[in-house]
């Protein structure tokens, strides 16, 4: 194989591809050199393997990624987007926690750095699987990628060992950013998820004293005494509809959903 060389071209070995040659060209879009790697592969001549900005060579990361997602369209979309990045290696993709654990328990366990894990999976859920995954990979960084954004799911996942929680509505570029963030020791949350976490730890506003009117306090006391709505109406000389209207306002003010919760707050002195 013949390679033309002039004063503007440098040729040197690249990794474990042998024989391999690299040619540096100026990048027209970013002003950075672009690396084009070639391999001599008889009977063919030069075969282009990959091109990427030359600055990647300075500090190349090698993130070994696995994906657990039962939706084939989402799984294949994420895989296709991630695998084109030179620093990300897709080790395997599966559709369940059980399939992941089967691969993890193989005679030669695949090395993994980051795992994208769904929650709503066939068989064992992602949250249930976190414990078993951690048993096989104690140091893996697990990113939950799911449609669930309920508070209990978020905190159950984080308490079980996930380091990040991302909505499936997140753009693929942001998901890739999350992978690099956790690999480098950080954590990543979708903005809506981060807000929910912040709200969980925000101090609750104290209720204003005497938030209930005098009439509403009378109704609360009547509930504690075990009176029915009809009996309350007769005792306070008001209509049954008025009692019901006051009850709705009491629920809204106290942020409760039942008579039992009102009585419980009253007995605890929280009203």
| Low-pLDDT segments, ≥5 res | 1-58
Q: Order of strands side by side in the largest beta sheet?
A: 5-4-6-7-8
> What is the gyration radius calculated from CA atoms?
30 Å
Q: How much helix, percentage-wise, in residues?
A: 25-40%
Give the ordered list of helices and strands: EEEEHEHEHEHEHHHHHH
Total DSSP helices? 10
Sheet/helix structural class? alpha/beta
Distance between the termini: 88 Å
Q: What percent of residues are in strands?
A: 15-25%
Morphology call: elongated
**Mean model confidence by pLDDT:** 80
Tally of DSSP β-strands? 8
Largest sheet: 5 strands, parallel
Mind sketching the topology for me?
Elements: E1 20-26, E2 33-40, E3 46-53, E4 63-68, H1 72-83, E5 88-94, H2 97-104, E6 114-117, H3 126-136, E7 141-146, H4 151-160, E8 164-167, H5 172-183, H6 191-201, H7 214-224, H8 229-236, H9 240-254, H10 259-268
Parallel strand pairs: 4-5, 4-6, 6-7, 7-8
Antiparallel strand pairs: 1-2, 2-3
